[in-house]
Amino acid sequence: MVGLVQAYLRATSFVGFWPVDQFLVVYFVSVPFHIMSFPYFYHFQLLYVLAKFQILALLSGKTVPFHRRVITTSHRVGFDSMDYNFHMNNGTYCRIADYGRAALLLPVVLGAARRNGWKVANGGVTMVFRRELMVGSAYTATTRVRSFDDKWFVLEHKFISGGRVVAIGVCRMVIKERSGRTLPPVKALEILYPGTRHIASPDEASARLGALADALVAAPVAAGGPTLGQHHQ
């Protein structure tokens, strides 16, 4: 493998700027710092997050409706997550948000969605950045349902570092029946959790994702953000 790399480098103009041996040393030393770029790392980390929260749910012995759960994951900005400003790049925010959404919705997907032939689809994400996350910074990402209307569930992804909100993501999710028709959130919740009353949010979430994200960003961390919809038992 090393021989192939050396042959390739010698055949390119890159050799004129950096000796092959020095390049190989730097390359292999830097590999451990770019673990998140390894093939299938995304999938392995996703499976880890899903397994972790499923095990925690089983150990707790409680069934918490998914729209009342809060998924919190902890991370640190790696070298392969940075942009040219040494900040965490935009794509990493969306990747981390994927983990939270998957863990939040897994009970639905494994349960009623599988039995009834539902499909849960992502209808769009809006991300608002308040502060940068530098390489090496530790941060947490929380995911929860913040609102819903007659079509969309609206999820909040909040990124916090050092006690401050650094970014807010707002995502809208829809449930489709086997026929392809949209299953209204209130009806879905009635099927998922019989006997529970739910008051739909008045927010026009599907049309106001950007404004909703701005409102969430303006909210103080300690308060946990505004309650944009009411969900009562």
Automatic annotation (TrEMBL):
Coiled coil: none
InterPro entries the record matches: HotDog_dom_sf (IPR029069), THEM6_lcsJ_thioesterase (IPR051490)
KW Transmembrane (keyword) present: yes
Entry-linked CDD domains: 4HBT (cd00586)
Superkingdom, taxonomy of origin: Eukaryota
Pfam families per the UniProt record, alphabetical: 4HBT_2 (PF13279)
Keywords on record: Membrane, Transmembrane, Transmembrane helix
Membrane-spanning segments: 7-28, 40-59
Protein name (Swiss-Prot/TrEMBL): Thioesterase domain-containing protein
Organism encoding this protein: Fonticula alba
